Amino acid sequence: MPRARMLLVEDDAALSELLTWHFTREDFDVARTADGEEALLLAREKTPDIVLLDWMVEGLSGLEVCRRLRRSADTANVPIIMLTARGEEEDRVRGLETGADDYVTKPFSPRELVARVGAVLRRVRPALAGETLSYADIEMDTVGHKVRRGGETVPLGPTEYRLLKHFLEHPAHVFSRERLLDAVWGHDSDIEARTVDVHIRRLRKAINTGERADIIRTVRSAGYALDTSE
Asked: How is the chain split into domains, by residue range?
């Protein structure tokens, strides 16, 4: 099971220490800061798998940090759980509308927060919750690097495998060609965006053999998604 990277943004030193202890014990790699500006720098240096973000921190507010993380291509899909003493419904709605995935009101039990983080990761980044990714009738063994659809083995080239893995980690999310280039080929890649189309065609050909439905949806002017909704 891969070790999940957590960014903890909390200006209460005692609480930050307590949460770091609990999540390190659960095998998280925890980077922490009490400062909103530094949080953005840390997220840029090494993209976290999940962010625990206090509403009131030094420098930028938690809401503004959340807003900027959502605007950045690198962190747009990173799950964010907001921690706050604010319990009013209007405040919770503001946090969620800004882009938070979940909301925990202080005081809370660290064990409950560990469970909530696990639930969010299983929903948003299932690769971190186990060794098998699945969606509809597709299964990927991330340890054995094997893919099956409907129980039958699907042979994939390495690039198509990485593409499918990214889709399986974010089912139903629409990704532009540029976002897929960053995620699958890397930020320094000089490959043209149209190359993505070629590999999408190869991936479709491999997983949609026979009478199987096309599970990769093309969204005009937006990109591609692994989606059975249509």
From this structure: 5-128, 131-226
For residue 14, what pLDDT is reported? 92
Nearest-angstrom CA–CA distance, 87 and 108: 12
Please state the pTM of the whole predicted model.
0.56
Distance (Å, whole) CA 17 – CA 134: 36
Q: How many angstroms separate the most distant Cα atoms in the chain?
A: 59
Q: Class for domain 131-226, per CATH?
A: mainly alpha
Amino acid identity of 144?
Answer: G
Q: What is the pLDDT of residues 139-172, one digit of tens each?
A: 888 767 889 998 899 998 888 988 999 898 888 8
Residues 202, 204, 207, 213, Cα dihedral to 10°: -160
- The arrangement of secondary structure in 5-128, i.e. its CATH architecture, is 3-Layer(aba) Sandwich (3.40)
